[in-house]
Amino acid sequence: MAGWLARLPVRARLTAWYVALLAVILATLAFFLLLRLRADLVAEVDKGLDAQAAGVLADTDGGAARLSEDSLAGLSRGATVAQLLSSAGQVQDRAGTGVPARSLLTPAMLRQVLNGHPARAEMRPGPDRTRYRVLGLRRTPRTVLAVAAPLTEVDKSVERLRLLLLVAGPIALVLAGGGGWLLARAALRPVDRMAEQAGAIGANRLHDRVSVPDAADELARLAVTLNGMLDRIEHGVAEQRRFVADASHELRTPLAVMRAELEVALRADDPAAGASEVLDSAAEEVARMSKIVDDLLTLAHRDENRLELLLERFDLGEVAAKVATQLRPLAEKAGVQLTVDASSAPVVADHTRITQVVTNLVDNAVEYAGPGASVQVRVWDTADGPGLAVTDTGPGIAPEHLAKVFDRFYRLDAARTRARGGSGLGLAICKELVEAHGGRISVRSVPGAGCTFALTLPAEPPGEAPRRAR
Questions:
Q1: What whole-number distance in Å separates Cα of residue 374 and Cα of residue 365?
Q2: DSSP string across 376-416
Q3: How far apart are CA 56 and CA 74, in angstroms?
Q4: CB contact burial 17-32 (16+ within 10 A = b; e otherwise)
Q5: Under DSSP, is residue 105 helix (H, G, I), strand (E, B) or coil?
Q6: Residue pLDDT tens, the chain, 470 long
Q7: Which of these, 141, 262, 295, 365, has the minimum number of CB atoms within 10 Å of its CB?
Q8: Which is it for strands 440-445 and 132-140: parallel, antiparallel or unpaired?
Q9: Burial degree of 369 (CB within 10 A; 0-12, 13-18, 19+)
Q10: What is the side-by-side strand order in the sheet with 91-95?
């Protein structure tokens, strides 16, 4: 049943639940009304029995063991049954229409009355099985008066109300279901409109948005959420397109250089004479393309959460010192002083990936610091985990560039980085690799006073990143 209901449209499910709930409420109300009506009508019968019993007792106050028809005249129509009973339950006298010959009171009721406590009950004493409301009162210490009134009119009234509810209830449910369907359709009309608008948005219409209802309700929040999702999708697609365009541009440049050099060499009178130079240049361009392809693959694996980390324990300080030693000739050539302040900082991470991060950060600092500047690499180890910072005293980074330095293919100085073979992927690679280890990387800069790139790694290895132990 639940599975079948779940396949219905939302407005149908809302209407079904609404009708079901209303049916339960109506059934409960009908049951209460029937009980209340019957209780009230029986209470009226009891009042009549009380009055008649008092009259009968007054008429027989002289002690006569006889009932007169006059003593029953005050009873309502049909309430014509009375008996005088002995202490043993024998009928001494009776009066009324259709009064049974046997006692109206059960032995238990008779004992209760003889003990001075009135007794009331519903019984079927006659052969026709008519239900009576019976009242028993003690007349004398050894005689009991029993009066009874049939509940035929009570049962008829209750039955009429039951039939009315059985007829009116389904009609009310049908009307309520129709009204609920119309209300649900009106309430969900904005959802249909949003679904239609969202279905029309394709790859070439990512700038379109769904309309937001005027009311500040759940549907308005849904529309705002959908528009926010579309904003993120549009931004992601734009980034992807830019990524593809930048990657194509970066790969096209070395290919164009190689093609031009090879064509010039082949047109020469003696192609073999300059073959060595051409091959050297081609090898450089191939290495550059290989580096770009490797970086693109790393980013693609990270995007797909398939970046494999070969975890091992090593000293981050030793990595920083080794990288500084390798890049010191480059720093001296650029007129930059490179120093290291590295204390021991054990870390469990991918040695190759972390070395790549440190190399990119130091190389980037040396490149942008400029002649006469200094670059310091500092390593520390705290309770929160090991960390590394690369600080330079160069020109710094302007505030408008800080938020974009970790973007893919973003360059502060496109001409200079292309001259050195940079692709604009170095800092993006650093960010992705550090975050893949569960760490954080940040940048602080004061224009004209240099900048600092800092990273921290967790004290324990990442628990969710794809990895395998070395």
A1: 9
A2: EEEEEEETTEEEEEEEE-SS---HHHHTTTTSTT--SSHHH
A3: 10
A4: ebbeebbeebeeebee
A5: coil
A6: 556 666 777 778 888 888 889 999 999 999 999 999 999 999 998 898 888 888 777 766 545 455 655 555 544 445 567 888 888 888 888 877 766 778 888 889 989 989 989 999 988 876 667 788 899 998 888 888 888 888 888 999 999 999 999 999 899 989 988 888 888 888 778 878 888 887 888 777 777 888 888 777 777 888 888 888 888 887 777 767 666 666 665 666 666 766 776 666 666 656 565 566 666 666 666 666 666 667 666 666 666 667 788 889 999 999 999 999 999 999 999 899 999 998 889 999 999 889 999 999 999 899 888 888 999 999 999 888 899 999 999 888 888 888 788 887 676 654 444 444 455 678 888 998 899 888 999 999 988 888 999 999 987 766 544 444 44
A7: 141
A8: unpaired
A9: buried
A10: 91-95, 81-86, 143-150, 132-140, 119-123
> Encoding tokens for residue 155?
């049962």
Q: What is the DSSP string of 408-454?
A: TT--SSHHHHHHTT--S-HHHHHHHHHHHTT-EEEEEE-TTS-EEEE
Say which amino acid occupies 336: V
Contact present, 415 and 356 (Cβ < 8 Å)? no
This prediction's pTM: 0.49
